[in-house]
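Retro notes (design track)

What went well: tokenization of the new backbones is finally stable.
What didn't: we kept losing track of which sequence belonged to which structure.
Fix going forward: every design gets posted as structure first, then sequence, in one message. First example under the new rule, 543 residues:
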């Protein structure tokens, strides 16, 4: 049953503009959404889920994920051939693949794409590609990019050389970082490459139009040269970024959007309707701590957060069940640790929670004692910390809750809340210049990616935590553990425990994402992991 909400004064203008953009005669059009601003559409540089979702429409991947998150051949013609020692992975790509300008896609374009990720001259923050031989030395400028462990023996064969056997390699090859990139096109545009839709060349089912880096609306247009175009039903996909939940729902109810992200306030209103689609997520929402020491970052250092007792006070000084059940209306579950429950099972079949235990919980008296000791060690009566969040409804809601909970439970702590556009929050975190930040992580298929966020050399180690112990664990997981799942599981347990014992991060909740989707839309795929919860590239409307 449809429900009517109060229309905003600006809604009529939005509806009018959107109707003009999507009503061209005879075209099959999907009016869709992305939940916030994108930071880049360069496949070699994307590192956040919003940008990854925007890129996925026009970047063709070697493999794509089915409804069960299993990789199926896409640009690749078959499963990869893996050598007996697990160190060489050979992928054969189809011979009938073309870019949107009609230029043929060859294996060397995939080699070039991967090289760009690690080329220090490109300055990529993309860290999704792990395990490739010489990657760290190339990124550090110690070796040239052609020494990276990726080669093209022919126009249809790509060969990857790994540091160690990787049990998740096929799923990792479904990442858009492995999508082909035309060297000639990149060189033609130079430093303007990927800064606008004109300076992007699609290899996937759609090209992008009307994007120059700051838009809140643009469209994807069917690529006439795409190898699988007969299975691409939509001629156009119009994208809107609408952060206000009321406006988004009004547009959906008016038929101007076929899908919207639903904030937790509205989930009960749509319960039991065919419009409501819940997608369980392995995304962890965390309170990240800017632990920077003066030695690490002379320009920005936080003496308060270098104190272990202050960090432990933040770890135990809030009620995660209150956050998930009341603030988020049950659209999330409390975090159990750094690694999300459900991403993998132990060799004996136990879940993360069963095997590792619930490591984060509420203990207000202990938190207050930690805070008291921390203030005493610092020689102050109170402290003030700035918390930066995105300016989306849900982020603001979580930030407001954290501000209230901490100021209530930890007298002497003041939280200044800053709600900013997602791109501004990303910039602050990647500059390592923040006190507290509401962050999140949707990792790849290897649980190692979750503790890896806080490893010394990792680009997204936002708090700049430095630890030889954690680095040793991560190195073991990424190399000598190989396919020994019992050893891998033990090292995962140790890394998870280490991060909680040292209160390096405050895990908050594990998301369940809710959406309103036109019930007539069929053929889309929902995913727990990956750059987007939805793959609508092969979706269609049922008559």
């Amino acid at each position: 049953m449809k429900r009517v909400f109060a229309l905003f004064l600006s809604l009529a203008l939005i509806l009018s503009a959107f109707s003009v953009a999507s009503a061209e005669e005879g075209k099959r059009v999907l009016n869709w959404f992305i939940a916030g601003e994108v930071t880049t559409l360069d496949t070699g540089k994307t590192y956040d889920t919003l940008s990854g979702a925007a890129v996925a429409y026009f970047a063709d991947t070697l493999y794509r994920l089915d409804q069960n998150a299993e990789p199926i051949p896409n640009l690749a013609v078959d499963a990869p051939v893996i050598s007996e020692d697990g160190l060489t992975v050979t992928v054969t790509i189809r011979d009938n693949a073309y870019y949107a300008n009609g230029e043929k896609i060859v294996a060397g374009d995939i080699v070039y794409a991967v090289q760009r990720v690690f080329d220090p001259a490109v300055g990529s923050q993309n860290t999704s590609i792990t395990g490739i031989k010489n990657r760290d030395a190339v990124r550090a400028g110690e070796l040239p990019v052609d020494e990276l462990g990726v080669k093209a023996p022919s126009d249809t064969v790509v060969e990857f050389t790994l540091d160690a056997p990787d049990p998740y390699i096929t799923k990792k090859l479904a990442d858009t970082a492995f999508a082909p990139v035309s060297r000639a096109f990149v060189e033609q545009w130079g430093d303007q490459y990927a800064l606008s839709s004109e300076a992007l060349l699609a290899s996937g089912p759609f090209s992008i139009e009307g994007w120059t880096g700051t838009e809140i609306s643009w469209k994807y247009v069917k690529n006439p040269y795409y190898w699988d175009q007969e299975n691409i039903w939509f001629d156009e996909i119009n994208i809107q970024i609408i952060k206000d939940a009321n406006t988004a729902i009004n547009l959906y109810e008016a038929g101007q959007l076929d899908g919207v992200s639903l904030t937790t306030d509205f989930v009960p209103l749509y319960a039991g309707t065919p419009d409501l689609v819940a997608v369980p997520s392995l995304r962890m929402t965390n309170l990240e701590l800017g632990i920077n020491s003066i030695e690490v970052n002379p320009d920005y250092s936080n003496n308060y957060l270098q104190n272990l007792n202050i960090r432990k006070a933040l770890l135990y000084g809030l009620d995660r069940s209150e956050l998930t059940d009341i603030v988020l209306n049950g659209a999330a579950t409390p975090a159990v640790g750094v690694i999300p429950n459900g991403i993998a099972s132990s060799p004996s079949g136990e879940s993360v929670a069963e095997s590792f235990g619930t490591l984060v919980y509420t203990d207000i008296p202990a938190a207050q004692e930690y805070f008291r000791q921390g203030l005493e060690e610092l020689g102050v009566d109170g402290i003030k910390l700035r918390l930066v969040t995105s300016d989306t409804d849900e982020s603001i809601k979580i930030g407001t809750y954290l501000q209230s909970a901490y100021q209530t439970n930890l007298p002497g702590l003041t939280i200044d809340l800053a709600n900013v556009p997602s791109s501004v929050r990303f910039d602050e975190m990647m500059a390592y210049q923040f006190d507290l930040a509401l962050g999140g992580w949707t990792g790849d298929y290897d649980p190692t990616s979750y503790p890896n966020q806080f490893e010394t050399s990792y680009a997204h180690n936002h708090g700049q935590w430095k630890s030889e112990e954690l680095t040793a664990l991560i190195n073991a997981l990424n190399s000598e553990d190989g396919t020994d799942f019992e050893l891998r599981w033990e090292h995962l347990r140790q890394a998870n425990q280490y991060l909680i014992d040292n209160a390096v991060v405050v895990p908050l909740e594990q998301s369940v994402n809710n959406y309103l989707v036109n019930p007539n839309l069929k053929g889309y795929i929902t995913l727990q992991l990956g750059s987007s919860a939805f793959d609508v590239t092969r979706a269609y409307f049922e008559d």
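Added context from the reviewer: Residues 1-23 have pLDDT under 50 and may be disordered.
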